[in-house]
Amino acid sequence: MGFELTDEQKDLKDMIRKFVSKECPRDVVMGLDGREEFPGGMIKKVAGMDLCGLAIDEEYGGVGRSILGAVIVAEEISTIYPVLAGAFVSPTLCGGKNISDLGSNDQKKKYLPGLARGSLFFTCGLSEPGTGFSGLSSIRTTALRDGGKFILNGAKTFVRLADTADYMLTLARTEESGDDKKGLSFFIVDMKTPGISVNKIEKTGFNGFGLGEVTLFNVCVPEEDLLGGVEKINLGWDQLATVQESDHLEVAACSLGIAQGAYDYAANYAGERVQFGKAIVEFEAVRHMLVDMAMDIQSVRLLTYRAAWLADQGRPCLLEAAMARAHASETAKKAALQCLQIFGGYGYAMEYDAQRYVRDSLTLMGGGVTLEVLKNSIGGLLGLNNATA
Fold this sequence. Notes:
By secondary structure, this protein is α+β, with helices and mostly antiparallel strands. It has helices at residues 7-23, 26-35, 40-48, 67-78, 82-102, 105-117, 236-272, 284-312, 318-343, 354-363, 371-381; strands at residues 122-125, 142-146, 149-160, 167-173, 184-190, 196-200, 211-222, 274-275, 278-279.
């Protein structure tokens, strides 16, 4: 069993670290955060490095499938600027991986080149008002066939980049049956289609990274935009596991980066801050906090990298990705709070990033997914209960 990154992956990690150091200085990120501004210029630079094609085969304009490579990029960017990492995974994993894995040949030709260039943004519309992530089998959004198109009516909530995305992968009910898991279909919905409205959801962190409720009123979607083609109608529940794999990997990678960033920021401060004649890192309580952070981060990295490796092998990884997401999001929150504690009173000051790590870590489980719901899902995958969402 090997745990060593390849030379190519090491070079990628080093390249992203240099990019973040140059293009994402803390004062610039702080300004974008304060203005709640989407980092459009920065994501164009990331796309210009061909990084958005990491989940896409070369024949469609990508650089060859490397889900682990995409996770590494998201992790490294998130150490300083998680919002930019969130923008990166939109075309790369939400779009690139899902269309590569589930799209028809025509859909791959239509969408993957733009996703590889980073010129298209994709999001997922799964959770609905009043049901959330735990009630996906009870989807109320309907899609009624009308000739060669479908008419969608319903609402999706906690949709990331709802105000920015070009397309939304959304789950709707195309047939009524006695089994809630049957009769569901995924659609690729153009967000510019008449009948779509977006209501912004105010949140704690990830400033500049939109979160919203999307309402669909008589939205016309051509039948060719059924994910996988018309032959995949009513097979949405079967496709859901792959979509959730991508979602879990996105959050796990960003969480890992936030945790690592909080640790690095706190460790550097503890080495410089002097109290009672010595650096505070020499105090056992502070040193033990940093050790605990480092151990948790390493375990999260192993979980996350293994899930991404499984995805690269074309093997199912829903359980591993869900575990990585659960552990990573909790580790990010814990590391951020410990970072704030190490900074003491300065941790609450807006001129320091400790408070931003806390705010961003608290937003990670957004999207209608609570830790408890996610653990229920993991329990179902382990065969411990009847949870299947």
